[in-house]
Write a structure and sequence with these properties.
By secondary structure, the protein is mostly helical. The chain has helices at 3-15, 17-22, 28-49, 56-61, 63-86, 89-96, 99-110, 117-135, 145-167, 174-195, 206-231, 236-243, 245-257, 264-281, 290-303. The protein has 15 helices and no strands. Keywords: Membrane, Transmembrane, Transmembrane helix.
């Protein structure tokens, strides 16, 4: 499979995660924890089989950012998985994909990056699109559509934080970075879950076990390996473009697999968010820079 095929496969897998999370009768934080545990074991096993050691010296130098971004990643998963419980998978995902617009604004405010006219207009239009998603209710969306959207936006804020933190990590990249971030997520999520009710794996039926293993092994371990192997070979803008298959698949899964309806104005608003988020990333150079690809592409990976 070529680099584009691997990227598309990874994004298609990421886009279907909402349906699998719905099939796991566990609290959102516990799903996030076991996802991180299963994926860490799987990716660690792959590195062990390949006899590829971790770059410990580089990791030590970047440890504070890695730990902080891992904590944000785990918290991000909690909010996103909770959003799936309260609103439709499509609306939760569209709310979550407001994050790239937040990154554009934060980069201008925090890092003094120049906010071009195109990026400014895209941010305003994406904000208007998000207002449409929030202000209109989709039929059959979930128990509490507004709460689900709020959780999705909260996850978007954390997703933006992960991207901004990753911008400062230069010496550790790809799977090594992700493995350390997963380990950091485990360190944060384990005490949280212990204090908030303990573990409930014994409550899982065969369907729940299959869904949980799929989320950990397929949607995280395998999909991340596909994603990072493709990212090394693709220009940053190509990776960004292909990553938008993720929310499109999520909308399709929501409608065709789960039978969830989405209102026409929510579709319009969601399309505005996605298109403007993508357009705001164009013009940043198309070289094969892993960091550039990760800015957006890895956000898709960490989202789902």
């Amino acid at each position: 499979m070529g680099a584009r095929g691997r990227m598309l496969a990874a994004m298609a897998v990421f886009g279907s995660i909402g349906a699998f999370v719905r099939a796991i009768p566990l609290p959102s934080a516990e799903i996030a924890l076991w996802r991180a545990v299963i994926a860490t074991v799987a990716i660690g096993a792959v590195l062990l089989v390949r006899r590829r050691p971790l770059p410990l010296a580089q990791i030590k130098g970047e440890l504070p950012r890695l730990l902080l971004s891992g904590a944000a990643m785990g918290s991000n998963w909690i909010l996103l998985f909770a959003a799936y419980r309260y609103t439709s998978v499509s609306v939760a995902t569209l709310s979550y994909y407001f994050a790239p617009s937040l990154v554009v604004l934060a980069s201008a405010l925090l890092f003094r990056e120049r906010l071009t006219a195109r990026k400014g207009v895209c941010f305003l239009l994406a904000t208007g699109g998000m207002a449409l998603v929030i202000g209109t209710q989709g039929r059959g969306a979930g128990a509490n559509d507004r709460l689900g959207i709020a959780l999705g936006l909260g996850a978007a804020v954390l997703y933006a934080a992960v991207i901004l933190l990753n911008k400062g990590i230069r010496s550790v990249s790809g799977v090594d970075r992700t493995l350390v971030q997963f380990a950091a997520a485990i360190l944060v999520l384990t005490p949280y879950q212990l204090l908030s009710g303990g573990f409930h794996l014994g409550a899982l039926d065969p369907t729940g076990w299959a869904a949980l293993l799929a989320v950990g092994l397929v949607h995280t371990g395998a999909a991340y390996c596909l994603y990072f192997s493709a990212l090394k070979e693709l220009p940053g803008q190509t990776a960004a473009l292909l990553s938008y298959l993720d929310p499109l698949v999520a909308v399709g899964v929501s409608a065709l697999w789960l039978g969830e309806a989405i209102g026409p104005w929510q579709l319009v608003g969601g399309a505005a968010v996605l298109v403007c988020s993508f357009l705001s990333e164009l013009g940043g150079g198309g070289g094969k820079a892993e960091g550039e690809g990760e800015g957006k592409g890895e956000g898709g990976a960490e989202a789902h």
